[in-house]
Design goal:
The chain has 286 residues and is mostly beta strands. Helix content is 12%, strand content 42%.
């Protein structure tokens, strides 16, 4: 009967343990090489430091449940000519440093008989203040709206924004011909060093009682850095003889590309191309 040799047994154990270790490392290597995906902001899974699915934490996208929803301050439509109206709404975004490059909306125009028509659109919503949403030349046929509403579709994409609303300032406002064919001349100043392109400006005129009388939209192709551009708003109908103020917000949406130029109240209004998602790279601080 052979005696038990402990050193031989222990050597076999060491060999076996070594083989298992090598095999385990090979299996782990294959797993990490071909099957493992590290936590990231595009995997549709809440993982890592994320506070929601692919949002907040280490992700640029901000979870919608952490964002205060925009508030509609007012919405109204203004007659441009028989059967055509401009619709404008002011929307407040209370989020500090957080905006969305794409929020969908629906304007609805009503009279006593009910819904006349509706107009859908998409716009950006910068942070920290109140911004206008404008739709021009809405066809109402022979009906005249008595009520205008705006519905905001909850945005899915909220991002940190570097939009600086102090970049644009207005000067030399001249409102002429209010009882005939109103014309508003404005000088827009770009205080930044860089050139601004495809700038949308909405002007709203108020009565002495603070009631909005009319609104118009104009597009500026470019404003040089530290430069200025003269802008003209026109209306084909008289508005009022008692004007309290002329409000040209510096809340200017830059992240929209336009075909055509200038005023939506002209004979052939330009059709905006909603390229807000493409413009998100200029909207987000990466």
């Amino acid at each position: 009967m052979k005696s038990f040799r402990f050193w031989a047994f222990w050597r076999r154990v060491q060999y076996g343990f070594g083989y298992l270790s090598i095999l385990s490392l090979m299996i782990i290597g294959v797993y990490y090489q071909y099957f493992y995906t590290p936590a990231n902001c595009f995997d549709n899974i809440k993982n890592g430091s994320e506070l929601g699915v692919d949002c907040s934490g280490s992700c640029t996208l901000i979870c919608s449940f952490m964002v205060a929803q925009p508030v509609i301050v007012w919405a109204k439509s203004f007659k441009i000519t028989d059967g055509q109206f401009n619709a404008v709404a002011y929307v407040e975004n209370k989020n500090q440093g957080i905006g969305t490059p794409a929020i969908n909306y629906v304007f609805r125009l009503f009279d006593k008989a009910g819904l006349i028509t509706e107009r859908n659109g998409t716009t950006v919503l910068p942070p920290d203040s109140t911004y206008p949403i404008f739709e021009g030349r809405i066809d109402t046929g022979k009906r005249e709206p008595t009520e205008t509403t705006l519905e905001l579709i909850p945005a899915k994409l909220w991002l940190p924004s570097t939009f600086d609303r102090s970049q644009f300032k207005t000067s030399s406002l001249q409102l002429l011909g209010v009882d005939a064919r109103p014309r508003l001349n404005v000088t827009m100043n770009n205080t930044a060093l860089s050139e601004a392109k495809d700038v949308e400006v909405v002007a709203t005129i108020f009565s002495a009682q603070g009631v909005p009388l009319t609104a118009s939209q104009t597009f500026i192709k470019k404003i040089p850095g530290r430069g200025q551009s003269d802008v003209v708003f026109t209306w084909p109908r008289p508005i009022a003889k008692t004007i309290r103020s002329c409000d040209v917000p510096t809340d200017i949406v830059v992240a929209i590309y336009l075909s055509g130029s200038m005023n939506n109240d002209g004979g052939n209004p330009p059709e905006p191309i909603s390229a807000v998602l493409k413009s998100a790279s200029a909207f987000v601080d990466n």
